[in-house]
Specification:
Blueprint: H1 2-18, H2 23-33, H3 36-53, H4 58-65, H5 69-81, H6 85-90
Length: about 90
């Protein structure tokens, strides 16, 4: 029962976020639902993915973004073995 409920809430979140049509509205929503630290972490993760896709070395990314090499390595593994969502989305960036 708990897994079904979480999936329902996840689907509702996805629909809710996908209906936001402006950067301002999305910024406001993210400020409402994420702490500043969570939002910064997501922004850094995106920069890690973009840098990895552009061919920057993991060590350079870690230095430039002031994150651990392990954090960049996790991002690399996610790009290689995870679902293709970020890779597909970055093709249109």
């Amino acid at each position: 029962m708990l897994i079904v409920m979480k999936n329902k809430y996840d689907q509702e979140l996805l629909r809710f976020l996908s209906e936001i049509s402006t950067d301002k509205a999305m910024s406001d929503v993210l400020s409402n639902i994420l702490t500043p630290a969570e939002r910064e972490e997501l922004a850094i993760r995106l920069q890690i993915f973009k840098a990895l896709k552009s061919g920057e070395s993991q060590r350079d990314i870690a230095r430039r973004l002031d994150v651990s090499l392990a954090t960049v390595s996790r991002g690399s593994k996610e790009l290689k073995y995870g679902k293709p969502g970020v890779s597909k989305a970055l093709k249109y960036d």
